[in-house]
Amino acid sequence: MRLWSLHPRFLDRQGLTACWREALLAQAVLAGTTRGYTRHPQLERFREHPDALGLVGAYLSGVADEATARGYRFDRDRIRMPADAVGRLEVTDGQLALEWRHLLAKLEMRSPGLAERVQHAEPAPHPLFRVVPGPVAAWERAGD
Question: Matching InterPro entries, A to Z (predicted)?
Fold first, then answer.
């Protein structure tokens, strides 16, 4: 599971659809409707907030907005709590930089044209996140 802190505009088609599916899985875990992935470290930052389902709903809304901008149709009815203003999570610049390198490596293999177009871009966060100075997050696991 990878819930990117990066803005979904940087994801290729495969990455965007995978992000949608994985965020829906995260929503199911946080709602208690599935038994798998309950201890996944990517969910720690959502669980720490009192409105975890609202935050994952806002995350999903951001992914769906990008899909709509590209002409895809993601089923927004699957978002349990579609919210845009439930609050924001912090992401460190160290975490964002690690995810940026990870994404560029994936894009170089899967979507080299996109990798070339974005490689010199400034990594921006998903609209849910606010960037603060700091190292890679404690919950990050190499290879996710």
Answer: Pyr-dimer_DNA_glycosylase
